[in-house]
Structure formats: structure tokens, C-alpha cells
Amino acid sequence: MRTISRGGRELPPWTDVGTKLREGFVLSVVLFIWGLPASILSSISFPVNCVGSSCTYHPSVLAPLGGLYSLLLAFLTAAIWSQYLEGGFASAFDFRAIFRRAGLYPGMTVMVWLMAIVAGIIGALGVIVVVIGLFFTLPYAFAVIANLYGQFSQRTQRAATAV
Q: How far apart are CA 68 and CA 113, in angstroms?
């Protein structure tokens, strides 16, 4: 993603793998933190009917809000990645810059979101069909998603720096 956002067209070299793994782990933590509200809202449930050791649970009225937040988060993911790669952990929580990036070209943001979903589905299908996805379709899907997010980052750079 970083190479594409800087105008490159080739895959990055496999040097300094430890740094890349650390950055990927921190990005995972960032996305985990962003996803916590959806998880909390969606998982709240109350026992409705308990008979013996078996209980029936009913989701709370807040569960739909968790779903809506998940959709918003999916819409903002490219902007969050862009902010993180350009400014680090703290920038991934710069709400104004993230919403400016996502809102600069809303049509492009939706297309990146939808194309990332399609790439993920294709990658998952490769795992299901003959398990070849572990070696071919999943890495390809991740490369496609990184390329999409890199192009998004490049095109929305001016929105992130606007005051």
C-alpha cells in the first residue's frame, strides 16, 4: 500500500521484514480498537427464558447499532489504513482527517470498499475450493486490497492535510 500511495508500481522489496510485521501488528491493533464498539453493541444480549441449565437469549435493542457501526467502519477502513501508514498509531485515530479522506471522493470510497469485499470473497473461495487459496488466491486478494488502499491513499492525501 505504501509503495502504491507513493506512486510506485512494483512490489516492495522483502527487506526489514521485522519492521513490516511490527507495523502490520500495530495496524491490526488499530483496527481491533476501531471495531470494539461494534463488537460490544452487537454482543450485548439478555436471557429471556431459562429452563434448567438452558437459556434463550434475546439481543438487545443496541445490536442493530453495532451492525450500522460495522458498516461505517468498513466504509472508513481505507481512510484508517491511509492515516496509519502516513502518520502512525495516533494518526489512525485522527477522526477529522479520516472523515475528510472518506468524504473527499465518496463514490471512490464506496468502490474501494466494494472491491475489497469482492477480493476477500475471491480469496476465501480459493481456500474453500481445493485449498489452493492459501498459496494463490489469498495472497493475491491481499495484494489487490493493498493496491486499492494505496491508490485511495494517494488520491485522498490532500484531504488528510487540509485544515
A: 15
Q: What single-letter DSSP state applies at residue 103?
A: H
CA distances from 82 to 44, 98, 109, 129, 136 (A): 31, 8, 12, 33, 26
Nearest CA to 59 among 84, 78, 40?
Answer: 40
Cβ atoms within 10 Å, residue 81: 26
**pLDDT at residue 138 in the model:** 79
**Rounded mean pLDDT for each run of 10 residues along the chain, 163 residues in total:** 78 82 93 92 71 72 86 92 91 93 90 90 78 74 87 83 64
Cell numbers representing residue 158 in the block:
490532500
- The C-alpha atoms of residue 10 and residue 3 are separated, in whole angstroms, by 8
The DSSP secondary structure of 22-90, one letter per residue, reads HHHHHHHHHHHHHHHHHHHHHH-EEEEEEETTEEEEEE-TTHHHHHHHHHHHHHHHHHHHHHHHHH-TG
